[in-house]
Design brief:
Helix Hairpins, single chain, mainly alpha, 180 residues
Length: 180
């Protein structure tokens, strides 16, 4: 209904478009299109405000009156052909597809709140992890055993006075205590 109303109120559309018919339509189809549109736009039957409905209905009646008269219709068709024959060069500014990309905007309140919560969670987990390490008496920085073994092998390969076992004789050590 809104699209129908918009097309009737638009002054830039042709009378054919206002009635919703093709330019070569016969008089009977033109009359049926007028009746169908007039039922939708009549001030007594539409939900539009009275002033807008009466304007739309008046424009619809004018379009039908012009197209129903064969002489006026021929003159209108000639005017349409003359207007479409002249190429109208209208240079429209093309919107830049990159417009607005990369521009910074201020953070919203919700974004600030989530950043503060994320920072607090990170800080809390760091303090909790260090607190557990202190309570259990562990070192704060521990090198993993696999890293220490590789470094030992690399440095001891350089020395000639130490005999290393073959790699098949190295055993993996568990990080868990033996009782577990």
């Amino acid at each position: 209904m809104k699209g129908l109303i918009k097309s009737v109120l638009d002054v830039s559309i042709s009378h054919y478009q206002r009635l919703g018919v093709a330019p070569g339509v016969d008089p009977e189809a033109l009359r049926q299109a007028f009746r169908r549109k007039s039922k939708a736009l009549h001030p007594d039957t539409t939900a539009l405000p009275e002033a807008q409905a009466s304007l739309a209905f008046q424009q619809l009646k004018e379009s039908y009156a012009l197209l129903a008269d064969p002489g006026r219709r021929d003159a209108y068709d000639a005017m349409l052909r003359a207007n479409t024959a002249k190429p109208q060069i209208i240079k429209q500014a093309t919107p830049d597809p990159w417009n607005g990309i990369g521009e910074r905007r201020p953070l919203s309140g919700g974004e600030w709140f989530s950043l503060v919560l994320l920072s607090l969670a990170l800080l809390l987990s760091l303090v909790l992890g260090l607190g557990v390490a202190v309570v259990q008496g562990r070192d704060w920085q521990v090198s993993p055993s696999w890293l220490t073994d590789e470094q030992t092998l690399k440095t001891s390969n350089v020395r000639s006075d130490v005999v290393l076992p073959s790699t098949g004789e190295l055993t993996a050590q568990s990080a868990l205590p033996p009782s577990a």
